[in-house]
Write a structure and sequence with these properties.
This protein is mainly beta and 201 residues long. It has 3 helices and 14 strands. Strand 10 and strand 11 form a beta hairpin. The longest helix has 15 residues.
Amino acid sequence: MKFSSLLLTSAALVLLVPDLPSFVSAPAVAQSGDTWSPEEGFRSLFNGKDLTGWSFSLEERFDGKTESSDGRFTAGNGILAVQPQKEGQKRIGKIQTVETFPKDFVLRLEFRASVNADSGIFLRGKQLQCRDYLVAGPYKELKKYKAQDWNVVEVTVKDGVAYCTCNGEVLEEAYKLPENGPIGFEADRGLMEYRRVRIKM
């Protein structure tokens, strides 16, 4: 009898509680509400939540981890971030995919650079400068570059030569690459964020 009374009292209390406003659950929806997916024919190289598939070397992989061993590269909320150098850290670092890409491919990604940030995109081991271009160069004449906002880099590799653009403007028309190698990012100066890293082969 006492147990039944308790159940009835609890039910009555629930009825008296008004409906919670919709904004109470909004953060959870926002965190899982990114509906972006790669275009047809593309696949993601970065899963948006951790560094699975990325490494410093074949012996030092970061599958399931949200931070590299040196703390320079972190993952979460859809972003692979290159963190600024801290005291005691090496200035230059590089993270790369475990997978290598010997065939022709199209690479697309978005990046956002802090003021004067300096990073790089490694294409089969050769670096394409990725920076806060209008301040740090080398492509200071870009008209469509958006400072401290998201920009799109596309790299089309055919027969060992890359055609590279930023927001549709040419960075490199005939960038000679090695025959094979991974995709990677450099840590140098400032905060650089990458997202939606995908490839088509």
